[in-house]
Input
Amino acid sequence: MARSHKRSRSWDPVADWYIGWNGKRGDRHTAIPAVMHLLALQPGERVLDLGCGPGPLARHVAGAGALYTGLDASPRLLRFARRHHGDHGVFLHGDATRLPDVRALQPSHFDAVVFLLSIQDVDLLEAAVRSAAWALDSGGRLVVLMTHPCFRVRRASNWGWDPGRRRQYRRVDAYLSPRSVPMRAYGAPQAHPKGRGHSVSYHRPLPAYAHALAAGGFAIDRMEELPTFERPEPGPRQKAEARAWEEIPLFLAIRAVWR
Output
């Protein structure tokens, strides 16, 4: 995942957990189809995946006839990506907020840059956006898919049940204040065993992303809110849960064009 230079190896101790959570194929059901839709790739276009992790996007980009480059700060995640997806693209080690320092990269080289569920793991948002602009050719596009900052605030949001109305709702206890919290897998009691590495997620309110993109020279031209791909278990609450899960988005996708 993308992160500041001082944490370049912070994900190595939890890489095995992260790979297991996402699966070797890493389809992520909702996320990758949404990203591919917004990318609208043409054959021969060049894509840079920032915070590529184990590389699940590579085969989809290659399947569209485009050229894939993934970048991550974790050597262990990159080893997995090269082993399982190396036939679909190139994987580089580097800091997503300091792309000019990556010798293998050139400015204005890419047609599209992607943050696939990685932007919320970057503590220097503005620097990451500037790096994306540095990598893009004129008119290039940036696609960001993140956990929804309005409805999925780590350790400050959850599903709730109203027995009187027999409705499931989304409870949000905090939103406007930026916060950094240890990363947790959705629905899991704990992201990884205690004492195994350090991984942090950064919550920001939605305008922070819009302002960072504007300051970086980007114009947003598309936004999509996506529900979870999961389905409720059979039971007396199944219908109400399904309605809530279809109505309340847990992911947000943004496409912006570099001017």
Q: What stands out?
A: Confidence is low (pLDDT under 50) at residues 1-9, 11-15, 23-27, 184-197. The longest helix spans residues 75-85.
